[in-house]
C-alpha cells in the first residue's frame, strides 16, 4: 500500500468536486443554446447523467476500466460494486484508492453527457437513458481501459493526459453517429434556431473552465509541479482558444461574438486535455490558438454535409480533440514530464505515429459500437419524439414542465397531487388566513 | 381599409409571413398572446402537484390593408396557417377609420 | 496545541469556501421555484443570512455551541467575539482553530436559510430578520452544542456526521412551525404557483451538490481516507436520490421531471449527511434511493394536511433528514469509521435507539422553541405582508426592486438619488456628449 | 530552490482556480446590471479579458511586474514568454514558481475587467481591446511591481495584502477617467436604466465572494494560520458590508434592497482586500461595515458630479479600496502577522502615513496614465459606438447576437454559414426524416 | 359580432376566465400589457437612485361574441374583475366585420 | 370615441407618453410587438451561421379618446415619435362602440 499524503489528497478531493461541477456546467452550456421550449430536456440530459453514470460506474464501469487487464482490451468484474476499493492508497499512490475511483467516475459522467449535444431537442428520454447505459459499458469503459487502465494503447505508449481520446474524440464520434442515426430537427438548415439564453451558456462555459482545472491538473493525481504546469497550460490554451475563435470571426464576418469566445474557450480546453501534462506554456499558446480557429471553421460543416449535430459536439469536441491529440504528438517533451515522451518537434516521430494510432482506434471503435447500439435502440423502442412533441417542445412533451414562467399571469389550477397518504386529517383549520 | 387580425399557431409564423410577402403585403405587426379555446391546454407537474394550464401560446398578426386586398389576404393566410387540427386559429376583420405614417404624415392607404 | 498539517488545512480552507457557496446556491435553488414577482425577496432570505449568521456566530453563536459545556446543554460566552480563538490548531487538531470556527459558521448560516423556503412569498423582511437571529441563538446554537459541541447527544453516542439532526431536521421542524404560524399564501391549493425559472433552480441544486462535498467530506476535518469515503458516499447517495425521485415519478405519472431530478438530488444529499463518515458505498446507494422516493411521496402531504410549506422544506429536509438519521442507525459500521458505531445491520441495536432519541429530541426542542419565537414575533410586529403587498409581489413591496427587466422598453424616470454630498460642483461640462 | 509542500501547493492550485472563476463571476455581476440589449457586450468585456490578460501576462506582464527590479519602478523583460519560470519552487517558496505566476495572472485578468463597468453600454469593442492591452502593460504591471514585485512601495513598507491599491484603487481610478473621457450614456440621469436581471447579478456576487477566498486567503501563498485568518476576516468583512449597506438603505429610504446586499458584500470584499492578512476579526467587522455604508453613500455621487460610471466602479471599488487601504493603516497588527506592521490603533503612525503615500501614488499614476492612453485611443480610433448602435444595443450592433430569445416564435432564416469547406459531398440523403 | 376588449388586473384573470366560461364563452385571447392611468405606478430603487415607473402590469382579454351576448359578457366581466379599487380597468367594445375559422373556413358567428 | 393605435420605436415611448400627458391624456395601454415593414431587420450570427431576422421590436400604444381629441392626439403622437428615419411607425384609427370603467360601471367617454 502507498502512503497517504494530505496535500495530494486535498487536491484530489477538490479536483474530483471540480470535475463533478463540470457536468451541471455542461448542462447550462448546452441548455442556453437550445430553444426555450427545450431548455429543461437539454439540461436533464446532462444532469441526470450524474445519476446514471454514477450507478453504472460504481456497479461495473470502474471494474471494467481499471480492473485486472484482459488481453489489453478490458478489465474484469472483480471490483463489482466497488468490492475491495478501499480508503487507503493503492500501491505507489498517495491518495485513497476510493478517491481515485471517484475522480475517474466524474469523467465517466461527463463524457456521455457531452454526446447529448448532438441529439438535443428531439430524442426520447427513455431511449436516451438506455443509450447512455449501453454506451458507458460498451464504449467508454473499454476505451478508458485501453488508454488509462493498462490496456493496449497505454502499453503502446500513446499519450493522453486527461482524456483527448477517451473523453472528447470518443464522445464526438458517438455524437456524429447519433446525429446521423436520429436525423435532423424539423426546420434544420432553414429556420433560425437561436440560442435562447446566451448568458446561461457563458456561465456554463465559465463553470467548465473552472472545473477543467480539476480535470486536467487533477490528472496529475498529486499537488506538485506537474499539476501546476498542467494547470497553467490548460488556462493558457483556453484563453488562446477564445482569442483564436473570435479573431477568425472578426476576419470572416467582421464581428467577434460572445458565443464564439465561449466556444473557442471550450475548443482550447478540449485540445489541451491530452497534452496538459506533457507540454510547456509556449506550446499551449499554439495548441489553443489553432484549436480555436479550426473548430470555428469546423462547426459550419454540418450545414454542408447535412447532419444535424445540434450543439456542435463534432465541431468542437471532435475537431478539438483530434487537434489536441495530434499536437500532443508534436509538442510533448520529456523536459516537462519524464514519464511522457518527445513529440515531433523534439524528434519523436514514434510518439506522433502512436498518437495517430490511438486516434484512429478510438474513432473506429466508437463509430462502430455507437452505430450498433443506436440502431438497436431505434429498432426496439425508437429514438425520436413525435413531430407534435417536437413542435411543442420536449420540456412539456416529455417532462410536463416549463423552463420559465416570467410573465405576469400564470392561470393554471391545481388538479391533483401525489402524496404518501391520500387520507390524512387536515389541520388546515389551525393555519392562519391569507392575511393577518 | 380594413384591419385583419389573425391568431395562429406560433410555429406557422414563418410560413404565413412568407406567403403574405408573396402576395405583396409589405407590413404587419406581430405579438405573442395566449389563447383559450377548443384546443385543450396541457398539464404541468411540479413536485407531484399537477396543474392544468388552459392557455395555449398563440401568435397574433395584425395587417392593415386596402379593402380590395382583404379576401386575398384572408385566403392566403388561411392556407398558410392551416394544419387541419383544432387550434389553427381565427381571422378577424375590423373596420378602420384612418392610418397615418409617422415619418411622412401620409394618410390612408398610402400610409400602409 | 496541535500541529498544523498543510494538506488538512488546504482541504478545510476550500471546504469552508464550498459550504459558504452553498448558501447563495440555496438562494438560487429557492429563487427559481417562486413566482417571478418574489424572486429577489426569496433570494434575499438566503443571501442576507450570510450577513446575519456571520455576525451572530462571531459574537455569540460559536461560543454558545463550542464553548465549555454547561450541563450538557449549552456552551458559555467565554469566546464572545471570538476571544481566544486563534490561528494555531487546538489540541488534537491539525487545522487552525479559527478555521474550524469558520467552517462551523457556514453551517450556522445555511441552516436557518433552509427554513426560509417554508414562508417564501409572504413574510415581512423585518420579522424574518428578527426570527433568524433569535432562532440561531435559541435553537441552532444549543442543538449544535448537543450534537457536536460536547453536549448530551454527543455524550450519548448518537451519530450525526455532518448535520442530519442539527441542520436538516432542526430546520425542517422550524419550517413546519413557520408554515403553520404564518399561514397559507393567497391562492394556495387552488392556483398554479409555477416555478418561474427552473434552470436557476437546477443551477442552485448543482451548487448545493458541489458545495456539499465541503459540507460532508469537510466534516472529516482532514484530507484523509475518511474524507474520501464521506465524499464518495455523498456523491453516490445524491445520484441515487435523483434517480429514485424520477423513477417514482415515472411510475406515478409517467413523466420524470427535471425539478424532480434536482429535488431528489437534494433529498439524497440531506439523507446522507448524518451517515457520510460512517457508511460504505453500497449503503449509500440504499440511503439515497430510499430518500429520493420517500421525499417524493412526502412533498404532496402539505396539500393533504393543509399547511403551505412553499418550497417543501418539510418534505425534503425533514423527511430526508429523518430517513438519513434512522438509516445511519442501520448502516453505520466501524469498518468505515472506528470512531463511529455499528448500526442495526451490524448488530448495533444500541445505536439505532440513540438515533431515535436524537431525532426525537431535536424535533421536540425545535418545534417548541420555534413556535414560541414565531408567536412572540407575530404578537409584537406581525409576520406577514399585507394582502396587497403579497399580490404585487414582495420584490416591489419590500425591496422596491424588480428581478427582471427583459422587455424592450423600460419607461421610468430618475427622480432622486442618494449621495454622500448633496451640493457638489458638477464637472459634467467636461464630459463628452452622448456620441462623438 | 525551495522545497515543495503539497498542502500549500494544493491550496494555491485551488486558489488560482478560484480567482480565475471571479472574472466570469464579475461578467455576470456586471451583465445583470445593464439593460438586456447590452448584456452580452458587458459580459464579453470581462470574459475576453481571460484571453487578453493571459497572453499579455505570459508574454510580458509577469516579467515586468516580477522580473528583476529596475530603480524600484518596474521589472525587466528577462522572463519574456515565461522564460525560466519553472515547475520547482523558487527560493524561500513552497509552491511551484509557475503556479505563483498563474496566481498572479488571475489578478492581472480581473483588475482591468473591473474597469469595464465604467464604460459599459457604449464602448467600441476594438477600442476596448486596445485599451486593455495598453493599460495592463503601462499601468497594471508597474503598479504591481511597486507593491508586490520589489518596487518602491514594497520597499517603503506600505501594506497591501491582496490588492487594495494594485487592484481596486488602480482600476477605479482608470474607471473614473474612462467614464469622463468616453462621456455619458444617452439618457443618463434622466431615463431609468434598470438592471435587467438581478438574480444574475446576485449569482455574480456569490461567485465573487466564493472566489475571493482564493484571492485573499490565497495571498498567504500557503495553507497555514495566516491563510485561515485572511479567510475569516474576508468573510466577516463581506458579511458586514452587506449588512452595512442595507442598514443604510433602511435608514435613508426605508427599503433594504437585494442589489444593496450584493453591492455591500462587494464593498466589504474590496475593503478587506488590503487588510486581509494583517487584521483580526473584530477589526474586520468595522472595516466591512464602514465600507458598506460609505460605498452606499458614494454611488450616488456620479449623478451629482455628472460622470456616468455605469456600474459604480468608482463608488464601490474606488471608495471601498481607499477605505480598506486607510483602515489597514489603522487596524493592522503584528499580533496577526509578524511580517506586517502596527497600525494607528496600535501606535503605528508610520504605517498610516505609508498607506496614504501608497494610495496617493496609485491614484496619481493611474489617473495620468489612463487619461493619456484613453485620449490617444480616442484620437486614433474613437471610443464610442454611434448613437444608433447605442440605441439598438451593443449586443446586436457589435456582436450580431441577442442575449435572450425567450419568446414563442423566432422567425429568422438561415442565410449563410461559415465552414472549413464550401464544397463537400452531402450525405444528408442518409439521414432520417424529421420524424420516424 | 362585436369585439370586447378588457384591460384587467393580472391576478384577476383566473376568476374572469372562469366566470366567462360559466356563461358559455368558449374562446378568448389574452396578452400582457402595461397600463398607464389613474392608478399610480411605483418606485424602484437601485443603488440609491430612485426611479419612478408609471406603467402598471395589466392583462388584456379579447373576446369576439355575437351581438346578443355583449351585455351579458360585459356584466360578467365587470363583476369578476372588480375589486373596487382604482386600476380595475376598462372594457372596450368594437365593431367587427367578419370572422373566419382557419381550420374549416367557417365564417361569421360560426367561426367563434 | 375612437381608438388610436400607434406602432412606434421602443425608445420613443417615454417622449410620446410625456407629450400625450402634456395634452391631457390620462390613460393608455402599451404592449411589446414585433414589426415587419420597410425598415429592414438585422442579422444574427451564432457559430458561423448567419440568420436573417426580419422582425423589428416595436412598441404599440392604444389610446381611446373622445372624437374631438383625435386630431390633436395624432399630431402630438406624430411629432413625439418621429425621428425621420424609416420605421418610425404608424398610427391607426378605429371606431369604438362603447367603453366601460370596471370599477364604477361608467360608460362611454366618462369611462376613459
Ligand atoms: N371568441 C373568441 N374571441 C377571441 N379569440 C378567440 C375566440 N375563440 C377562439 N379564439 C382564439 O383562437 C384560438 C384558437 O381557437 P380554438 O377554439 O382553440 O380552435 P379553432 O381555431 O380550431 O376553432 C384560441 O386559442 C384563441 O386565442
Ligand atoms: N384612454 C385609455 N385608452 C386606453 N387604455 C386606457 C385608457 N385609460 C385607461 N386605460 C387602461 O386602463 C387601465 C386602468 O385605468 P386607470 O385609470 O388606472 O383606472 P380605472 O380603470 O380604475 O379608471 C390603465 O392601466 C390602462 O391600461
Ligand atoms: N400594413 C401594416 N399593417 C400593420 N402594421 C404595419 C403595416 N405596415 C407597417 N406596419 C407596422 O409599422 C412598422 C413600421 O413600418 P415600416 O414600413 O418599417 O416603416 P415606416 O413606418 O417608416 O413606413 C412596422 O414595423 C410594422 O410594425
Write the layout of secondary structure elements.
The complex is a heterohexamer, with three copies of chain A (436 residues) and three copies of chain B (112 residues).
Chain A: H1 6-33, H2 39-47, H3 49-66, H4 97-115, H5 125-148, H6 152-156, H7 164-182, H8 198-217, H9 225-253, H10 258-272, H11 281-298, H12 301-305, H13 313-331, H14 349-381, H15 387-392, H16 394-399, E1 412-417
Chain B: E1 2-8, H1 13-22, E2 28-36, E3 42-46, E4 49-53, E5 56-65, H2 70-81, E6 90-95, E7 98-101
Antiparallel strand pairs in B: 1-5, 1-6, 2-5, 3-4
Bound molecules: adenosine-5'-diphosphate (3 copies).
Structural class estimated from helices and strands of chain B: alpha+beta
Main beta sheet strand tally, sense and closure of chain B:
4 strands, antiparallel
**What structural category characterises the helix and strand content of chain A?**
mainly alpha
Order of helices and strands of chain B: EHEEEEHEE
Percent of residues of chain A in beta strands?
under 5%
Spatial ordering of strands, largest sheet of chain B? 2-5-1-6
| Strand count of chain B | 7
Question: Regions of chain A with pLDDT < 50 over 5+ consecutive residues?
Answer: 423-436
Order of SSEs of chain A = HHHHHHHHHHHHHHHHE
Strand proportion of chain B: 35-45%
N-to-C span of chain A = 67 Å
Mean pLDDT across all residues of chain B, rounded? Answer: 96
Number of strands of chain A: 1
Number of helices of chain B: 2
* Overall morphology of chain B: elongated
- DSSP helical segment count of chain A: 16
Amino acid at each position: 500500500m502507498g502512503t497517504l499524503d494530505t496535500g495530494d489528497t486535498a487536491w484530489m478531493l477538490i479536483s474530483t468536486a471540480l470535475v463533478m461541477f463540470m457536468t451541471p456546467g455542461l448542462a447550462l452550456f448546452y441548455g442556453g443554446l437550445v430553444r426555450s421550449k427545450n431548455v429543461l430536456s437539454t439540461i436533464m440530459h446532462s444532469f441526470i447523467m450524474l445519476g446514471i453514470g454514477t450507478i453504472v460506474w460504481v456497479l461495473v464501469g470502474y471494474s471494467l476500466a481499471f480492473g485486472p487487464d484482459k488481453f489489453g482490451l478490458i478489465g474484469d468484474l472483480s471490483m463489482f460494486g466497488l468490492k475491495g476499493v478501499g480508503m487507503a492508497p493503492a500501491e505507489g499512490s498517495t491518495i485513497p484508492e476510493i478517491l481515485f475511483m471517484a475522480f475517474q467516475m466524474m469523467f465517466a459522467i461527463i463524457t456521455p453527457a457531452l454526446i447529448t449535444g448532438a441529439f438535443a431537442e428531439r430524442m426520447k428520454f427513455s431511449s436516451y437513458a438506455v443509450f447512455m447505459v449501453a454506451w458507458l459499458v460498451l464504449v467508454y469503459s473499454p476505451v478508458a481501459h485501453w488508454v488509462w487502465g493498462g490496456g493496449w494503447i497505454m502499453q503502446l505508449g500513446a499519450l493522453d493526459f486527461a482524456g483527448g481520446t477517451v473523453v472528447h474524440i470518443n464522445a464526438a464520434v458517438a455524437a456524429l453517429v447519433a446525429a446521423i442515426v436520429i436525423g435532423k430537427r424539423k426546420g434544420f438548415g432553414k429556420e433560425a434556431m437561436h440560442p435562447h439564453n446566451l448568458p446561461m451558456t457563458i456561465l456554463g462555459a465559465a463553470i467548465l473552465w473552472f472545473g477543467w482545472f480539476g480535470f486536467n491538473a487533477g490528472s496529475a493525481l498529486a499537488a506538485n509541479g506537474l499539476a501546476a504546469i498542467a494547470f497553467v497550460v490548460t488556462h493558457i490554451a483556453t484563453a488562446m482558444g477564445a482569442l483564436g475563435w473570435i479573431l477568425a470571426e472578426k476576419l470572416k464576418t467582421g464581428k467577434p461574438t460572445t458565443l464564439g469566445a465561449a466556444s473557442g474557450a471550450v475548443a482550447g480546453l478540449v485540445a489541451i486535455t491530452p497534452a496538459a501534462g506533457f507540454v510547456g506554456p509556449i506550446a499551449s499558446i499554439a495548441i489553443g490558438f489553432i484549436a480555436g480557429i479550426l473548430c470555428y471553421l469546423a462547426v459550419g460543416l454540418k450545414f454542408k454535409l447535412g447532419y444535424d449535430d445540434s450543439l456542435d459536439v463534432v465541431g468542437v469536441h471532435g475537431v478539438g480533440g483530434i487537434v489536441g491529440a495530434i499536437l500532443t504528438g508534436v509538442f510533448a517533451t520529456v523536459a516537462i514530464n519524464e514519464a511522457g515522451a518527445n513529440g515531433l518537434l523534439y524528434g519523436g516521430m514514434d510518439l506522433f505515429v502512436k498518437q495517430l494510432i490511438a486516434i484512429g482506434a478510438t474513432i473506429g471503435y466508437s463509430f462502430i459500437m455507437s452505430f450498433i447500439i443506436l440502431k438497436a435502440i431505434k429498432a426496439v423502442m425508437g429514438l425520436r419524439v413525435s413531430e407534435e412533441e417536437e413542435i411543442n417542445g420536449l420540456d412539456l412533451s416529455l417532462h410536463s414542465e416549463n423552463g420559465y414562467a416570467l410573465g405576469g399571469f400564470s392561470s393554471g389550477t391545481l388538479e391533483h397531487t401525489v402524496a404518501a397518504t391520500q387520507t390524512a386529517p387536515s389541520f388546515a383549520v389551525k393555519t392562519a388566513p391569507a392575511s393577518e | 381599409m380594413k384591419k385583419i387580425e389573425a391568431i395562429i399557431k406560433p410555429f406557422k409564423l414563418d410560413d404565413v409571413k412568407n406567403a403574405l410577402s408573396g402576395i405583396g403585403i409589405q407590413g404587419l405587426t406581430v405579438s405573442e398572446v395566449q389563447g383559450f379555446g377548443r384546443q385543450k391546454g396541457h398539464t404541468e407537474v411540479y413536485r407531484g402537484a399537477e396543474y392544468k394550464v388552459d392557455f395555449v401560446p398563440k401568435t397574433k398578426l395584425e395587417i392593415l390593408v386596402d379593402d380590395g386586398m382583404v379576401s386575398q389576404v384572408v385566403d392566403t393566410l388561411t392556407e398558410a396557417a392551416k394544419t387541419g387540427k383544432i387550434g389553427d386559429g381565427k381571422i378577424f376583420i375590423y373596420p378602420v377609420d384612418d392610418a397615418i405614417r409617422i415619418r411622412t404624415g401620409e394618410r390612408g392607404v398610402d400610409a400602409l
